[in-house]
Amino acid sequence: MVQIYRxxxxxxxxSINLAKPVRVAHWMRRVVEVGVVLLVxxxxxxxxxxxxxxxxxxxxxxxxxxxxxxGPPLLGLLDTSAVLLVLLYGLWRLRSLLRCxxxxxxxxxxxxxxxxxxxxxxxxAAVFDVLLPPLLELGAxxxxxxxxxxxxxxxxxxxxWLLLTGGLFYLIGWILTEARxxxxxxxxxx
Length: 190
Known about the structure:
α2 (19-49) runs antiparallel to α3 and α4 (109-142) runs antiparallel to α5. It is built from 5 helices and 2 strands. The chain is mostly helical. Strands 1-2 form a two-stranded antiparallel ribbon.
């Protein structure tokens, strides 16, 4: 399918050169892979060294969970880890999207599905970031944990940007799906 796509582009317009977008997709995929490794390291560090201030030689590291989880430290770790794991899956789908681009598949079904999955993970990460802390607080309160006076939800600007970006990427994926469906219908008529 990818080879047919490349041959079709080269036959219809030989001035189109796909080498540069393929090369950029390759390097962006490498950057995303490094991001995946770093995200896994952050999640592991959260569980190994915990939240708070830590000094490693001359380097200071501060790991803080949501401010709305004043109770047991495990609640903050669960919340932060859940959001990071959703983002990890999103980065993995972004990596798969870039891999499709690297292979020359720019408008196929697979890249569109990867784009839509990536967009949904952004939206899901924002929803988790807003709704998971109050749910964890509520669960801890019913379990009898002390130090939790009330249940509150907080939404900051980063959550809004995640929702907006995820929504726009999902819209683009939906438009590409509909355009692909219309092109297939037109090809069947002719």
